[in-house]
Write a structure and sequence with these properties.
Elements (H helix, E strand, L loop, with lengths): L5 H5 L5 H9 L4 E6 L4 H14 L3 E5 L8 H7 L7 E5 L2 H11 L4 E5 L6 E2 L9 E6 L7 H5 L3 E4 L11 H15 L1
Parallel strand pairs: 1-2, 1-6, 2-3, 4-6, 4-7, 5-7
Length: about 180
């Protein structure tokens, strides 16, 4: 297994040929961040998006956007090759996505009375996964625009997981089922 030091990870810049190959292999999957405030979470989500092969990340509301040194550090420069777009709010982003990508499945990752266990969802492409603010979650207006609300069961004392952990669990489950 190749082990890189932190500085080596942050300075890894793919060649044009490698970037072209990466872009060719992107999946029809999108991440929507609804007011995710922690820049390290945003950077980590870019890193996850690269690992999964996500086509685009939508940064919405008060979510910080690149260039930002904390996002850059946490993303290990993946903001340079994962496409992203900013919208004033997630509700507008989802409307835009639905207009551009017909039949897209929109799934929020959230604890809600209407949620279903994430492992029971029949994921299909194209797919957008929506995550929300670290404290308040996905906004009610945004949840209304989603086809499903996926919930991760919690068996311990803690009642929630970090936003990037939740998105990682659900996105890998979706990819496994596609």
């Amino acid at each position: 297994m190749l082990k890189l030091k932190a500085a080596e990870l942050r300075n890894t810049i793919p060649s044009k040929e490698h970037l072209d190959e990466i872009k060719k292999n992107r999946r029809d999957i999108y991440f929507v961040l609804d007011n995710v405030l922690d820049t390290y979470n945003v950077g980590g989500i870019f890193r996850l998006a690269d690992a999964i092969g996500v086509s685009k990340v939508f940064l919405c509301g008060e979510t910080e956007t690149p260039p930002n040194p904390r996002i850059k550090k946490a993303s290990i420069n993946t903001t340079e090759w994962v496409a992203w777009q900013y919208f004033a709010d997630a509700k507008t982003a989802i409307s835009n996505i639905k207009n551009q990508i017909p039949k897209i499945q929109i799934i929020a990752v959230e604890q809600n009375k209407a949620s279903v266990p994430y492992a029971q969802i029949d994921y299909r492409l194209p797919l957008a996964l929506v995550v929300g603010n670290e404290t308040t979650g996905v906004s009610k207006e945004t949840l209304k625009k989603c086809d499903f609300i996926a919930e991760i069961p919690m068996w311990g004392v803690n009642r929630s997981l970090n936003v990037i952990i939740s998105l990682g669990i659900v996105s890998y489950e979706a990819v496994k089922k596609l």
